[in-house]
């Protein structure tokens, strides 16, 4: 038994649906040995996968970046997601997809003979952020970004992110804001947004951050709300002086950060730009 995981829930592993407590991979799977694999986290509302095409596009990009063979075509991935949802009794939930390079003798380089990628999919219980989290906002601390230089790949090699998130937990806050060479990158598992002088700012899309599926969406929501948006490098001082801070991710949606390093952000309450973007996000979900 794994605490918090219903043993009878069905997962997909290499072509079969099996109980999660009976799903097994080889100890030589390169995902296990080297973290040599990629993943996606797709939020599902009332049975509808939100921004599925964008998630599957990013999954394709991650596989291509690691030169892992694509196990399914687009219709195959959609079919897998539908089957996973049909076999779960959850309608608002998370679909997790993972592909590793597969099983091979332990050697760092890619296997000389092509191996079959390991494909894993599961549905997990999930509740969107509570009314309290939306109304009160979250807290964060700033830390140096100590991760590698290919954060744009949604890789399962997440040790840097794991250690960053643990720093948040140890500091009794909700998230970290990471800085590389004095510039904002992202959270441990979220993109970060800064409001300054009525403008929405985000770090540029490059190898230093994961381009969240909500990164593009926030740009759309800002345009719809008439909020000017700029992607550019953001200094630690600008973050410290921000009128508003926000984070976004599949599981946190969009939430305000109201406390940074123990000091209030702006008014210390979720701000007006957050309220506009949050309303836009809710409207997209309601329209699903
Ligand atoms: N994390 N940056 C990092 C490092 C992330 O891990 C995530 C998502 C994001 C936001 O991406 P998106 O909007 O596509 O969720 C940004 C997921 C939720 C996770 O690892 O569980």
Largest beta sheet, briefly?
Answer: 9 strands, mixed
The CATH topology annotation of the largest domain reads as: D-amino Acid Aminotransferase, Chain A, domain 2
CATH class of the largest domain: Alpha Beta
| Succession of helices and strands | EEHEEHHEEHEHEEEEHEHEEEH
Which structural class fits the helix and strand makeup? alpha+beta
Tally of structural domains = 2
Q: Rounded to an integer, what's the Rg over CA atoms? A: 19 Å
Number of E strands: 15
Proportion of β residues? Answer: 25-35%
Furnish the topology, listing elements before pairings.
Elements: E1 10-13, E2 16-19, H1 30-34, E3 37-45, E4 48-49, H2 52-66, H3 74-87, E5 93-100, E6 118-125, H4 131-136, E7 138-144, H5 159-170, E8 175-180, E9 183-184, E10 191-196, E11 199-202, H6 213-225, E12 229-231, H7 236-240, E13 244-249, E14 253-260, E15 263-264, H8 272-286
Helix pairs in contact: 6-8
Bound molecules: N-(5'-phosphopyridoxyl)-D-alanine.
């Amino acid at each position: 038994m794994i605490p918090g995981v219903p043993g009878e829930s069905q997962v997909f592993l290499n072509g079969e649906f099996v109980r999660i407590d009976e799903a097994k991979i080889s100890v030589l799977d390169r995902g296990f040995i080297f973290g040599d694999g990629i993943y996606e986290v797709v939020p599902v509302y009332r049975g509808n996968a939100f921004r599925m095409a964008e998630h599957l596009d990013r999954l394709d990009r991650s596989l291509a970046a690691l030169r892992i063979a694509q196990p399914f075509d687009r219709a195959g991935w959609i079919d897998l997601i539908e089957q996973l949802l049909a076999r779960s009794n959850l309608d608002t939930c998370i679909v997790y997809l993972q592909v590793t390079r597969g099983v091979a003798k332990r050697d760092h380089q890619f296997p000389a003979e092509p191996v079959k990628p390991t494909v894993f999919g599961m549905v997990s219980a999930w509740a969107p952020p509570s009314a309290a989290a939306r109304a009160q906002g979250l807290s964060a601390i700033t830390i140096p970004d100590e991760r590698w230089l290919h954060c744009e790949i949604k890789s399962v090699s997440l040790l840097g992110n794991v250690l960053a998130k643990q720093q948040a937990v140890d500091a009794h806050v909700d998230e970290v804001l990471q800085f590389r060479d004095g510039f904002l990158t992202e959270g441990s598992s979220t993109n970060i947004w800064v409001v300054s002088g009525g403008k929405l700012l985000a770090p540029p899309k490059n190898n230093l951050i994961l381009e969240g599926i909500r990164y593009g969406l926030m740009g759309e929501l800002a345009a719809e709300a008439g909020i000017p948006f700029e992607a550019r490098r953001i200094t630690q001082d600008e973050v410290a002086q921000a009128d508003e801070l926000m984070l976004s991710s599949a599981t946190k949606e969009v939430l305000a950060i109201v406390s940074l390093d123990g000091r209030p952000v702006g008014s210390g309450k979720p701000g007006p730009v957050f309220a506009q973007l949050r309303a836009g996000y809710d409207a997209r979900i309601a329209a699903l």
